[in-house]
Design a protein that fits this description.
This protein is of the alpha/beta class. The protein folds into 4 domains: 6-174, 3-Layer(aba) Sandwich (Rossmann fold), CATH 3.40.50; 180-240, Helicase, Ruva Protein, domain 3; 246-356, Zinc Finger, Delta Prime, domain 3; 393-502, GMP Synthetase, Chain A, domain 3, CATH 3.30.300. The protein is 53% helix and 8% strand. The protein has helices at residues 6-9, 22-34, 51-63, 77-84, 101-110, 133-144, 164-167, 180-193, 200-209, 214-228, 234-240, 246-257, 261-273, 278-297, 306-315, 321-341, 344-356, 365-380, 418-423, 425-440, 443-449, 471-478, 480-494, 517-526, 528-537; strands spanning 40-44, 90-94, 121-126, 150-156, 171-174, 452-457, 461-466, 499-502. A 5-stranded parallel β-sheet has the order 2-3-4-1-5, covered by helices on one side. The chain has a 3-stranded mixed β-sheet with strand order 6-7-8. Helix 2 packs parallel to helix 3 (51-63), helix 9 (200-209) packs parallel to helix 11 and helix 12 packs antiparallel against helix 13 (261-273). The longest helix is centred in the middle third of the chain and has 21 residues, at 321-341.
Amino acid sequence: MPYIVLARRGRPQLFANVVGQEHVTRTLQNAISSGRIAHAYLFTGPRGVGKTTVARIFSKAVNCKYKKGSEPCNECNSCVEISSGRSMDIIEIDAASNRGIDEIRDLRENVKFAPVSSEYKVYIIDEAHMLTTEAFNALLKTLEEPPHHVIFILATTEPHKIPATILSRCQRFDFRILTRSEITDKLKELLVSDNISVNDEALSLIAENADGSLRDAESILDQMLSFSNDDLGTEEVSRFLGLGSYQLLDSLVENVLKNDSAKSLESLNALADHGADLSQCLKKLVSYFRDLMVYKINPDLIDAAETKAQRLAELSKNASVEKLMKVVRLLTLTESDIKQLGYERLNFELALIKLCRLKDESIPLDKVLGKLQEIESRIYNVAPETPMASGIVAEPETAYSDAMVGSVDVTESKTDSPELKESDPLNSTWTNILKDIKDKCSPALHAILKESYLVSVDDSTLIVDFDPKFSWHREQLNDSGNKKLIESNLKEIMGKTMKLVIRTNDTPNKNDTPVSQKDMRVDAMQDESVKMVLEIFNGRIVDVKR
């Protein structure tokens, strides 16, 4: 007997044998059992997950006279003919090569004829998205109202290319990709029937490279068995897939995480000496670091063999999620560069050197919060006479009226800290003034004034200023009518005539003395609070503003 490849030998003949598509097979079985059979179906999903296989099983089930529940018997003449591809009532059309309007016109003529020996005539149109627009238009009316003895099944890997008018006339079923464990279990089942033993790690590697396609996995396994004469191990699979040695790839990942550029390049060189396809190695490296990243976040999301899971647990301890994200991003950019520019090995080597120089500078959030609390506690424990980092100089004023005596510079003294408000009498004075203006003057003027901050105050003058972003508020306060209204209320509040001045670059401040940028930087460096912040966060002063 001629040899039949695994992909054909392992093709399911019953709904129960279909791997990983229970949501589809159960719905179709219920439809068959209840007699609610639609006239058109659309099967979508990646290649090699069972779309055409399910279509054939469905064709057998609707035409089988001796079906067991909703499963075909696979023994009657109808089932045998369909399984062997000899049935004249099951027509499979490859839309990739029969995509024109002439082929669809022939189909429209043929659907009128009754089935030869079956109850239903089933048209299975594979790669349906390849049909031309004219062909879809020609199919539209027939698909909407076919004869009662016709069922259409459209299979496609690209449902977005199917016109909406066609989609609306079909029951759609989305086939999912298969997991590694589902593929390996099926491969084991096929190997048991052939009395062949293959270790789980080799099968797992085949499943990972099949990208969720059972047919691809079966084809790889079939070819591997011929390559190795039934003596199949992880190294043979790795070498056959163009990955060189699996251990070398694993050591490459470890060297990158250790930031050892010399050994990383040695591992890459060894992979090249083993005849590895470097583009395949790069893809595998991306997949490996992606698994590490996901495993670091949630180990349950990784579908891997036990030995691989243990290795992921071991390696993921040496890097943070942030660093792994950077690694994956850099590797994917390297893939793109190689496709566009070439220089495969050079770009791969450059990527490894960059990866090994990536520093894991991320700080966990709980540590950041802890350091902020430490800064806060240390700042508030500073003696009252010590100048604060914000530029506030606390004066030992106590009474409301006494705060008017002298001139105190409080630039950038706005703060929400209750401790600072209580310790700064000028800040307390300004708060009370604003409250009285709101109550006795105008809420609108209060809304303008509250965005300002008090610069200085003496017996006759009150100087305020605004941040640059409050230019509109500055303009409103410069209005003579508004200023007079506020000054009249200040006289009532303070008990004496007060002049309101809005500081500009030319406005003198009695306590201001010319200070250079260099002097301010020196003063900041000597401030104890600034020293604490720089020390804890390993920071540096970028700019100093008064």
